[in-house]
Amino acid sequence: MNNTDWNQKTVQELEDFLKNKIVLQGSEEYAALKIGWAVTNNKPAIICFCSTTEDVQAAVTLAGKKKLPLSVRGGGHDWQGRSVAHQGFVIDLEHLNTIVIDPDAKVATIGGGVTALKLINAADPYGLIATVGNCGEIGMTGYSLVGGYGLTSPSTGLAADSIIGAEVVLANGQIVTASEAENPDLLWGLRGGGGSFGVVTSLRLSLYPAKPLLAGFIMFPLSETETILHGYNKLMKSAPDELSAIVAFKPAPDGTKVIMIAPTWYGDVEEGQRVIDSIRKLGNPVMEQVTETTIKDLLESLSNFIENGHFHYCTTRWMSDVAPEVMTAIADAASQPTSALSGIGLMHLHGAPARVPLSETAFGLREAHFAVSALAEWTTEDTANADIHKKWVDDLFEKIDSYALPGGYLAFMGNDDKEQLANAHGSNLPRLQSVRKKFDPNGVFSREQVPLAR
Ligand SMILES: Cc1cc2nc3c(=O)[nH]c(=O)nc-3n(C[C@H](O)[C@H](O)[C@H](O)COP(=O)(O)OP(=O)(O)OC[C@H]3O[C@@H](n4cnc5c(N)ncnc54)[C@H](O)[C@@H]3O)c2cc1C
């Protein structure tokens, strides 16, 4: 079928083509669905489970004919439910999940709904890995389109840097290919610009050798927060490419609150042991578990720590340095969260992603930096206290905002953070807006994360 035939079809013909793939609000099947990591108040009118590019073409056309707001769901892990449009038409890609590994070229071709752990499992027999974050259930496409900070990023780059090609279904149902040879401007935009061009039905991603990995966590008493943050700040600013490390605040198994550093070392194990030892010496560890492992085992074990089905409120800022005032504010907030589920996290990006020139991809910051985020999380039984939990995040960021760089990581910002969302693209914003206008002139895939040109 050629590209224009879909638009010539009637609503009835499109519905017939998508028979058994459409779930309507109000149906029994709809009531039983759990389609997002987060709980939100978004109730789509129609969810269409697409398993082929043709399904996606038909679904995009049908949504247009029904004049319904369109959203695309990959792994469903956006904290604000942005993949599930309220009263809209959701193109669900869970079943668009083929994975083909070319071990010689070290390239994976994946369907738009493939999740991180599934890709890692498919690449593993070939001794290869992909750049992935710390959650196996995240959609590889949704994660790569916003940038994709990964466990091995200082060596292997942002996930966006791994994108070498894509197939995209545009709002008019047309299929376009993005590569260095075809539509290179679209490829540029897909690399960390936040999406908003069309439905990415497949991605070609570079893969990397599965080297030995040292990973786990070291927990320190919460009372040592400022000392640990001081040491982390210093250590990460001269960290080698083999090291990535996240700071998080978690309860230890006995319930006491701790500050935790979770390192990942992707390289020579002996050298890694020495570096991990220097992290240990930042304070007085109360508990630790750092072992030789694989990305596959690490992602599987991390899944046990991630809970679904809660409400969230999140924000984030980029910082080139964690100033002492920021450490004090984080220590204060971490010692009195309004919900036991809420947390603060710090990541550091250095190495390979910081060596890519800013204009080479759409990602908005190419200097070594920290990403400081706070996530308020509460259960569906605790909705009455939602504003209190949100205020905990806002109060922290009011104190630390003036120490931040403009912008922040798109995935962890909310749609209300308009000024910083625009800054998040840095000097790439005008080009991103013009690429978006070219491929989605009517803003059908409009997302607050890529502000429209004014
Ligand atoms: C527990 C958890 C851990 C996380 N850890 C990390 C981490 O380590 N590093 C990191 O960088 N981020 C991390 N994130 C953030 C995550 O990468 C982003 O929220 C990402 O956008 C999720 O993608 P998804 O496909 O799972 O989500 P979805 O909610 O399905 O989609 C997110 C956005 O991407 C769009 N999208 C998804 N697939 C497609 C497609 N095929 N075509 C077009 N648009 C598409 C959606 O429309 C939506 O706007 C984490 C999030 C969670 C909840």
From TrEMBL:
Oxidoreductase keyword on record: yes
Keywords, comma-separated and alphabetical: FAD, Flavoprotein, Oxidoreductase
Cofactor: FAD
Record-linked InterPro entries: BBE, FAD-bd_PCMH, FAD-bd_PCMH-like_sf, FAD-bd_PCMH_sub1, FAD-bd_PCMH_sub2, FAD-linked_Oxidoreductase, Oxid_FAD_bind_N, Oxy_OxRdtase_FAD_BS
Domain FAD-binding PCMH-type: from-to ranges: 39-210
Pfam family, one: BBE
Family annotation (SUPFAM superfamilies): FAD-binding/transporter-associated domain-like
Annotated GO MF terms: FAD binding; oxidoreductase activity
Similarity annotation: Belongs to the oxygen-dependent FAD-linked oxidoreductase family.
The protein, known as: FAD/FMN-containing dehydrogenase
Source species of the chain: Pedobacter hartonius
